[in-house]
Design goal:
The chain is α+β, with helices and mostly antiparallel strands. The protein contains 6 helices and 11 strands. Strands 4-5-6-9-8 form a 5-stranded mixed beta barrel. Helix 5 (207-213) runs parallel beside helix 6 (229-242).
């Protein structure tokens, strides 16, 4: 009986010593893990607050090398040799960063424009002699084609720069750029290209008429916008007789 008890006690002591050695051969380090001696795999059993500071695998490996005394295993430690055992990095950053998105600017709608109405605007750009871009008081912008007149082309995609086109464009730039003017609308508010159609007033001066009078434009009447047609025809007749601009 004594022999049996001695044998049983020895068996218990053997498993008490051997089994833990194979399962956990060594105390946990300050990170809450240890190396498996058989293949130098690092097992992160119980991550401590120190281990949780790591934002990614590279930072964790650096901590292991710093706080684990097993120099043999830490020397060649790679990510494939780290078993996180379910641990995840709380600040993991994706390797696929999303491209920065440009802030979107909400387009301001044009104010209500009625037949024969008038609006004060600022000319912010001159496209060519008879087309400008303006800004309304509410911040909305739009291209405006001057009614009843036509200057030689300078920016047409399918036409070369026409005779006296640059002169007409430069004249409008000089007269209207950054100027506050009044747009007067007729019956048709927009053309087929979406541009606003208007008469441009600089104080009491009808600029459309001035372009024709100085020889920078010829009359181009397109119904139903015919309010100042007679004035434009008279101005063109005078420019022809005086041989101004286009009529030299």
């Amino acid at each position: 009986m004594r022999k049996f008890l001695t044998l049983a006690l020895s068996f218990v002591m053997l498993f008490g010593l051997v089994t833990p050695t194979f399962a956990h051969p060594g105390a946990l380090d300050e990170l809450g893990g240890h190396f498996r001696r058989a293949d130098c795999t690092y097992l992160l059993h119980h991550p401590t607050s120190l281990a949780r500071k790591a934002k990614n695998m590279q930072e964790l490996i650096a901590l292991i090398k710093k706080y684990n005394s097993n120099s043999k295993c830490t020397r060649g430690l790679t990510p494939s040799k780290v078993n996180l055992e379910g641990f995840t990095f709380s600040h993991t950053q994706s390797t696929h960063t999303k491209p920065a998105t440009k802030p979107t600017t909400k387009k301001v709608a044009l104010p209500s424009i009625k037949i024969n109405s008038k609006h004060t605007v600022k000319v912010i750009r001159v496209v060519d002699g008879d087309t400008v871009e303006v800004r309304f008081s509410n911040g909305a912008t739009a291209k405006v084609r001057l009614i009843g007149v036509n200057t030689p082309e300078t920016v047409h995609p399918n036409k070369p720069v026409e005779k006296y086109g640059k002169e007409a464009s430069n004249y409008t730039k000089k007269r209207l750029t950054n100027k506050t003017v009044t747009l007067e609308f007729d019956v048709q508010i927009k053309d087929r290209y979406g541009r606003l159609l208007a008469y441009v007033w600089i104080g009491k001066e009808l600029y459309n008429e001035t372009l024709v009078k100085e020889g920078y434009a010829n009359v181009m009447t397109i119904p139903p916008n015919v309010k100042y047609q007679k004035r434009f025809v008279t101005a063109e007749r005078a420019a022809r007789q005086a041989k101004k601009g286009l009529w030299k």
